[in-house]
Predict the 3D structure of the following.
Amino acid sequence: MNVPASGVAAAIMFTPTNIITVSENQLHVAFDGDAVLFSNESELVFKSGGLQGYLENEKQNVENTMNEGPFKGFLDVLIKLQKKLHNKGLYKKCPIRTYLVTSRGAGCDGYRALNTLHRWGLELDEAVFVGGADKGPSLQRIKPHIFFDDQQRHVDAALEVGTVACLVLSPN
């Protein structure tokens, strides 16, 4: 399979056999962090240095902003649209909700993800840190219309709970 050039967001969409009933009043969009909203630099560190190398890298870089991933621009557009709707008085009943559902933990690595989003000026409605656990239960609770992740196992977990999922293609 050919992977798109750098700067081009691409994903393969999978539809579950039984799609869960989702909100008809709000669009729920969920994103993974690494290699989706953020670059895949942390995943590469994990692959080469294992969990210990990854955690040390995150601790050393906790205050540093991560590089942009392929779907950061899409999230940026969703949040700008959200803000326009908020300005029209639709803050509590905004028809768009955005979520970060990440394998990162709630320690330094989770802080770095939130810090990066904050520095980019992006505010998600909810962030879920599963700390390496299965994302299926969190997705089942959120009931997103669509979920973007770069790992097949997380896409499969989304499909198992009835969520449309997109496998984000990565050049590495």
Notes: The chain has five helices and six strands. The CA atoms of residues 103 and 161 lie 17 Å apart.
